[in-house]
Amino acid sequence: MNEFKKTNLKNFIKKCNELKAKEKLLKKIFNNINSGIVIYEVKEDCNKFIIKDLNKAVEKIEKVKKKDVIGKNVTDVFPGIIEFGLLDIFKRVYKTGKPEIFPLSLYKDNRISGLKENYVFKLSSNEIVAIYNDLTEIIIKEEKLKESEEKYRSLFERSIDGIYQSTINGKYIDANPALVKMLGYKNKEELMKVDIPSQLYFAKNDRPEINERDKTFCTKLKKKNGTVIDVEISSRVVREDDKPLFYEGIVRDITERKKNEEQLKFLSYHDKLTGLYNRAYLEEELKRLDVERQLPLSIVMADINGLKLVNDTFGHKEGDLLLYNVAKIFKNAFRKEDIISRYGGDEFVILLPKTSETEIINILNRIEKERLKFSEQKIPISISIGSATKYNKERDIKDVINEAEELMYKKKLIESKSTSIVIINTLKDILFEKDFETAEHTERVKDLAIKLGKKINLSENFLTDLSLLSELHDIGKIAVPEEILLKKEKLSESEYKIVKRHSQSGYNIVRNIAHLSNIADAILYHHEWWNGSGYPHGLKGSEIPLISRIIAIVDAYDVMTNGRPYKNKMSKEEAFEELKKCSGTQFDPDLVNEFISMLEE
Prior knowledge:
Layout: H1 2-32, E1 36-43, E2 48-54, H2 56-62, H3 66-69, H4 74-77, H5 80-83, H6 86-96, E3 100-108, E4 111-124, E5 127-134, H7 136-158, E6 162-166, E7 172-175, H8 177-182, H9 188-192, H10 196-200, E8 215-222, E9 228-240, E10 243-253, H11 255-269, H12 279-289, E11 297-304, H13 307-314, H14 316-333, E12 339-342, E13 347-352, H15 357-372, E14 383-390, H16 397-434, H17 439-455, H18 460-472, H19 482-485, H20 493-500, H21 502-510, H22 520-524, H23 546-562, H24 572-582, H25 589-600
Antiparallel strand pairs: 1-2, 1-5, 3-4, 4-5, 6-7, 6-10, 8-9, 9-10, 11-13, 11-14, 12-13
Helix pairs in contact: 13-14, 13-21, 14-15, 17-18, 17-23, 18-23, 23-24, 24-25
């Protein structure tokens, strides 16, 4: 009997311990669950709901202390329960015994700012339990997600770059208006029907594979009308559990940028005026071609004769045309594989890989044939050319360049004088065509000037310079517009300023021609007056070169005695009177006396 009692006692104690463990576990769950739990004791015929217990979640959510609210009526602790209708639900659940779910929305500024979901059920004959979850964070996250989606959609719709999503196989899932416009389609629906690999990409293999997608790449796309555009695509693969779902990315039209880059690249290696390669490119190519497999390597150096003379005479526009035409001659004469470059102002260097001296002779003959095609131009084209060839790899390429350059300069020394003579004669012919000056006038001035020079005992060198000055003193008029030179009425002040520049122009023309440089100053000053009121520098008296003073008198006399279309000619005696009248002001008085004396004899 005693053993039976002991056994029952042990079982009782075990049961008690088990119940305590369960109670402890339930208590632990009660306090650590995220949902708020409040146990209410119902009193006074369902008019009071006394807080009997609550867990830690309620303390956190409602910001209350358990010890402060136990034993108090719900309306005293949570007055809003009446406003939100929760008290009525408590009463109904207690009376019917049926549980109810009650979502409680909280508002701020007419927007939902929080949400509490309540679950109320009857626990015992005098107890109910309210379990609720604070869903405010979920609401905030949903609001932020909604805002983010709206911003994304706004960005998607308004972006100037194309934005897309497409299947792995190549069909658009979505595309923004910018991409539709960029590719030349009417609307998104039309673009959705396109097969991307075969219809959009310029070449099928231009579309990157899936393992090359998570990066920015450049490619070419075809618009609906067939136009090809350059694009830059920032692409990525969207995956789920490492399985690729679709592509998404941004497409930017870089056609103009590509054109500008190509233009900059072209300009960095080409001469803007002629379109030929420039010096920088030539030097890079020289490094590449100076190898054994390119031998024999020939170098041609060329220099335009008289370019400065053309610039000084007709202006840089005419000089640029001369350079352009020479470049055209070279393009037609040399081969495609030859590197033709403008090396400097009037110099050209051409690299000819695998080219012997014999082949260079043939090329030079072609250059001459091409040059003759421009023989009808008012200024003849003259080019001095030197060449050299490297046959063995040991020879320094600089020595080959120096050899070609030395030969070019030797030819230039020989050819430049004859070229200058040809150009000067051409200029004189042009001047005779556009001005009242004639070859007869020039010869008369030269004859009278030489006679006066001999009368005052000038040396042979002075007489030579005087002869040249007689022919070229007005060569600068070549730069004066024809309508001003031929004008019969009185010149305006601005027109007269243009005419007065002819002495400076003439100076510029002859100063860099070796056999004419002696008379450059004489041309510049042949309109200076004895009293200092002439042009261009206001020199006076003996500051004016002697041969300039002689030409001024002789030229004026010939014009007076032979006339002009706008001026009747004078008799010899009348011309003498005019010279005497201007003696000491415009003309050297001693030379005037000598000149008149010479003619009277």
